[in-house]
Amino acid sequence: MTATGATASVGDGRRRGKVTVATIARLAGVSAPTVSRVINGQAGVALSTRRRVEAVLHEHGYQRGDAAAQAPLIELVFHALDSLWALEIIQGVEEVARDQKLGVVLTTMQGRLTPGAGWTEQVLSRRPMGVIAVLSDLTTHQQAQLATGSIPLVTLDPTGEPLHDTPSVGAANYSGALVATRHLLELGHRRIGMLCGNLKWPFCRARLDGFRAAMDQAGVPVDPDLVRVGPLYVEGAARETAALLRLPEPPTALFATNDLQAHGVYEAAREAGLRIPDDLSVVGFDDLPFTRWAGPPMTTVRQPLKRMGTTAAAMLVAIASGQAPRERRVELTTDLIVRQSTARPRTR
Amino acid sequence: MTATGATASVGDGRRRGKVTVATIARLAGVSAPTVSRVINGQAGVALSTRRRVEAVLHEHGYQRGDAAAQAPLIELVFHALDSLWALEIIQGVEEVARDQKLGVVLTTMQGRLTPGAGWTEQVLSRRPMGVIAVLSDLTTHQQAQLATGSIPLVTLDPTGEPLHDTPSVGAANYSGALVATRHLLELGHRRIGMLCGNLKWPFCRARLDGFRAAMDQAGVPVDPDLVRVGPLYVEGAARETAALLRLPEPPTALFATNDLQAHGVYEAAREAGLRIPDDLSVVGFDDLPFTRWAGPPMTTVRQPLKRMGTTAAAMLVAIASGQAPRERRVELTTDLIVRQSTARPRTR
DNA sequence: CTGAAAGCGCTTACAG
DNA sequence: CTGAAAGCGCTTACAG
User: Domain HTH lacI-type: where (chains A, B) (predicted)?
Assistant: First the structure.
């Protein structure tokens, strides 16, 4: 093995030393059909065999010797497709895809954080130019499978632990939250609550931290009772808000982790007979289109969602064409959009 | 040649063309190596031979056959990706695709009604199982190209003239509009206006016709001044509504062709200092999620958008697997959802 | 789960 | 300039 390994690696400075399925098979001590099955993600290969073959494939930088090695496709994977949020990101990716004459294959994971079992196999058999995972992560094994297929990965608002080597795109969540909270403080609010999302998600964590930083800097203590964690949807946020409003000393302002939650605040306020912004100020996050038409129009932090999509797609195209990504992590700026859901607190 | 030609076409009930170098060679009366040389632009082919081979290649849309004959893909083409409307349809298509282990390739046309020049070529080279066109149409030539590639087409809310043979899916637009208008009539409204979309689109036309039918049946004349045609977005509808409200005898109720327009009505009412439903009743169409959280929650006609997506995808799968579609046109039912944007007209 | 054998589509090397 | 034959790399169908 040392001898053949040496021979193979000597030649591969530039010329992709014609590593064929047969070569890999020989080196891994299996037959060509087995290697073929591993490459195409077909079932029916023992896990240990698959691992061994993958290792050899990866080590020798196997490239399909056929033509048609790569399909002009971008894989776009979404945690869920449940808000305009997703639509704007898709538009961004579509824009780059159109320019580059690439097709976009869209997959939703129905709220799961990791693609299902069959997904990687499908992707490998499609041989796309690359994968963009939005608000979702791949398992280590799935990442390894993509790597063996030489399929690059870019994440957008990754969920779990930041992946060591995976380039990612996001927005300036921390500073957006900071500016939003300062806005409420400047209006004179002191009892400010926050509706958080799941804190294992870095973007949720960053928004909470930005909120806390602004409060600390202003010397206003954060009342732990006013910080609630819940799902990023309208209904749950409405329930949390209702609970907050029943407190002996309810908040005069709330900062929500996204616009959907902020809508839940609207709903709870309406049901409690409170008026926004007179009785309660609210700031959202995202600036989805309908925030402009809410009653009253919502003050929110704008995230350049479409541009996040184009950025991720452009990074992917660059990586796929052999360029090293300029940065591992790109954060696009956020802006506070002041509309009519925030005002000075009612003087008591 | 007649004999071989017949043999080829007889067998292809299920298996599609699979035009290989060998096929082209046979049809052009040359050998496979010669075709190979033409394809790869190699020298050493007589000009006349080259021309002949090129003609056959082009005529049969030759694609490199190394890859599989048909890719497990559904092409989903959208007129535009600008509303939750699109997202729900995508979810439906995704659901069927997931079950069938198909990928979904999403294309947007940026508001154009017909895919651009390069689109058909890309689709042909992807060899998908079929195409779903939403709120958009293909040119006759594009349809012919798909037909040559044996790629079936299903339309969802088709735009131009209903295509002779193209199966399509839609909602019960006429009866939905009828029921919505009756609801307003039953509340006591007589000066009812309607915001229309472009009437060359069958679904817009059907909603206007349903409105008229309900008015006629109730013996209430339609005032032509109260029927406005405009884009299906918030802003335009707000302008139209503002104009209607400035009329000497303004409407007491409006029926909008979609929820986005109805939101425009909300906006115009707010700016005119009118309250919904006290001063003006509004009914939308679609029942997008945010209508529930509007201020006040919107009365609207529910379209089963997700189910429209699954229905279109299921039709496509059936057709692709060789079944004749049970019906050419499927219309799913619509339901009036009464919330709080409609009330009796103010007595004067 | 695995491989020997057959097969596929394309290309190359050679003979005429 | 052209084709029969051999070859290449990968995949499929089958047997164990």
Answer: 19-73
